[in-house]
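Step 1: inspect the first sequence and its tokens.
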Amino acid sequence: MIKLRTPREIELMRQAGAIAAAARGLAGKMAVAGISTRELDRAVHDFIVGRGAIPTFLGYNGFPKSVCISVNDEVIHGIPGTRRLCDGDLVSIDVGATKDGFVGDCADTFIVGEGSVEACRLVEVTRQCFFEAMKHALPGKRVSDISRAVQECAENSGFSVVRDFVGHGVGERLHEDPEIPNYVQAPRRGADPRLIEGMTIAVEPMINAGRYGIRVMPDGWTIATRDGSLSAHYENTVLITRDGARILTQTE
């Protein structure tokens, strides 16, 4: 069931989103050569808790850490640990913060030091995919209009779109209806709802430099590209308004 948010709920989501966005930015600034992903996780955890919120991902379906940190060919759900970042690494930081019962969910991909031409272009195009999608996040449009915008932006740039994981509704829970794919699916009954004022959704392009196939790593959580190519991830929690999309995961 798709929920429409009241003004009070939207304000609570904005507050949670601001914490998540600030935590994402903190992790991006800290992502330098030599730091461990565990250190990034601890800093983000302490930041979120210090602002009166809860790290949404910690314990979610058994996830053991507060942040998903995915490096290079890892797409999403990387578990922070002893790995230390190196110059040129691509680091995707996915953060959720829950405050007063509502969730803010966002992600970005950062380059450690000097990145390759391919890495820089992949990050740029992944972010561009999100903002192309925002042009279609309007009442009366359909979910597939967002999906098509992401897919066309990525594929016209020579990249591919991950198909096994999608964006989603977000609110009192991290994952709510509807699903927001980053590619146009074959028609399925009820799978392409219209966007309505008051909907809150997480739009999150996951773009691979190579083919779109993925594999699950031995830890059972980390998702990596099947062909070993680089991957990037960009996400914001978005409110549908009569005037267009409003990003709720922004720093205050």
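Step 2: inspect the second sequence and its tokens, then contrast the two.
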Amino acid sequence: MFKSGFVAIVGKPNVGKSTLLNTLAGQKIAIVSNKPQTTRTAIKGIINREDAQIIFTDTPGIHKPKNKLGEKMAETIDEAITDVDLILYLIEGTDKGIGLANEFILKKIIEQKSKAILVINKVDLVKKESLLELIKAYSERYEFEAIIPISALNNDGVDTLLEKIVEVLPEGPAYYDTEEWTDQTERQIVAETIREKALKSLDDEVPHGIAVEIMSMKKRENKELYDIEATIYCEKRSHKGIVIGKDGSMLKKIGEHAREDIEEMLDCKVNLQLWVKVKEDWRDNESKLNQVFH
């Protein structure tokens, strides 16, 4: 019996959705940062087993939109949880009750009568008593297929979760070639890797106003080196100076860290050239958003 299906990972911002996707997949698919709203698009990760193919979608954290970028992210979430076979609803073990953001997500699941597994993340940070209270609060509201405590960062409970997912999924064919592991192109992964390194290196004010566009990505004829040119867009001139840093030190740091990950992903040496440009209010610019959500 071969199982297959589409599984959406949903939750409020910064709850660990991308970390869970990467842990389930056994390799890096989605960028990870300790800043909210790191994920902007619905990223697919594909797990191929002898008995199943699972297509996971990592969605942006659900929040109230503040600009067109936020509206696009909200649309992405709605599309991602429609017509899926299963929803992984990720919450934190440290939550005190359900809360407004989680209530909003829970209502979406209830409205759609979706098959869902409640995944309680970061359980290594809480006592058993408070965990039981959280389980009781959610189980009284909806009949989940299962409620599974995990620590995505420590890979605790993830195997149990994966087995339960396969159990719940319907019989079906492999929708993707069994060699594929994501629907993202190499250019998209490279752009997101650069953005991840910028998110991790910069202060809180700057990252949300950052986008990365790959201008050129070519493999040399000897096939031993990729030449990649990328532009980091920021919204303010003051931000441009921060991204570049004194004597270019910050941009160099971002580039070095990004290049290491890109070389590992491409299995090839990389010559990475980065530029920084100001694009005021790009988060409300339709054409620039279309490049982010390509």
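Step 3: confirm your contrast with the notes below.
The chain has two domains: 3-168, 186-292. The two ends are 36 Å apart (CA to CA).
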